[in-house]
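Retro notes, item 3 of 5
We never archived the inputs for the coenzyme A complex last cycle. Fixing that now. Sequence and ligand:
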Amino acid sequence: MNYTNLLTELNDGILTVTVNRPKALNALNRQTFSDLKQLFETDAHQIEGLKGIIITGAGERAFVAGADISEFDGLTTETAKALSKRGQDIFRAIETFPKVVIAAVNGFALGGGCELAMACHLRVASEKARFGQPEVNLGIIPGYGGTQRLIRLIGKSKATELLLTADMIGGLEAAHLGLANYVVPHGEEVLKATAIIKKIARKAPIAIAQTLECIDAYYDKNVDGFQKEVESFGFCAETEDFVEGASAFMEKRRATFKGK
Ligand code: COA
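Structure as it came back at the time:
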C-alpha cells in the first residue's frame, strides 16, 4: 500500500492510517481524497485478517483541518457539485466498511475533518481535539455529509447551532454531546481506539459486519431497518460462528470465531 498523503501501518490486524500533510494541518486535498478512495474502496478490503482501522492525523495539532481551501479557487456550481459528490462517495466507503473504523481525533477536526470523523463508526477524541463545521465562515456549507451526519449523531438542536455559528467544541464537550465516544488524555487516542478494536475483534466477524449494516439501514430511507434485521439475523443463524458461539456458551468456554 503506497499513498502520497497517507501513512499506513498494519500491526496485529489493526491498520492505522495517518493523514500526512502536517504543514497544512492535514487538510484534505484532491490527492488525499484519491488516496482514501484507493484505500477504502479497494486496498483495505484485501487485507487478510484485518480487525479494524484507525484514522488519525500527523503532527501535534490536527486530525484534519478541513478540505484544502487552496483548491477552492475557481470552483463553479458544476465542479463544486462534483467535488462534493466525490467526497461524499469516498466517506460513504468508510461508513460502509465491513470492519470497524475509528477516528482517533488528535487535534483540529474541522469541516471535512469533522465530516471524516463522523463517517467513521466510532470516534475517540483527545482532550485537545477541536471539532467544528466552520464552512459558513467561508461562504459555503459542509459538502461531505456534515449537514446530515451531525444531526444523526448529536440531534437537530445542537447540530443546527454548530452548523450556523461555526463554533468549535473541545473533546470533552464532543463526548458529552455524543459526537465522540470517548475523550482521553492527549496522545492516548490511538491506544484507546486500538483497545476498542481488540475488544470487537474477539466477537464473531460476520455478526459484527451484519450489525454495522443494520445500523446503517436505520438511516436509509429506502430500507426497512426491521426487515433488514430479520434478514441479517437469519444470515447469522447459518454461520459456523453462531454454532461455535452458542456451543461455547453452553460448554462454559471462550468461543473461537473463524468469520465463517
Ligand atoms: N486548507 C488549506 N490549508 C490549511 C487549512 C485548510 N483547511 N487549514 C490550515 N491550513 C494551513 C494554513 O494555511 C497554514 O499554512 P501556512 O503555514 O502555509 O500559512 C497552516 O495550515 C497552519 O494553519 P494556521 O491557520 O496558520 O494555524 P492557526 O493555528 O493560526 O489556525 C486553524 C488553525 C485550524 C484554526 C486555522 O488553520 C483554520 O481556520 N483553518 C481552516 C479551517 C476550515 O475552515 N476548514 C473548513 C474548510 S471547508
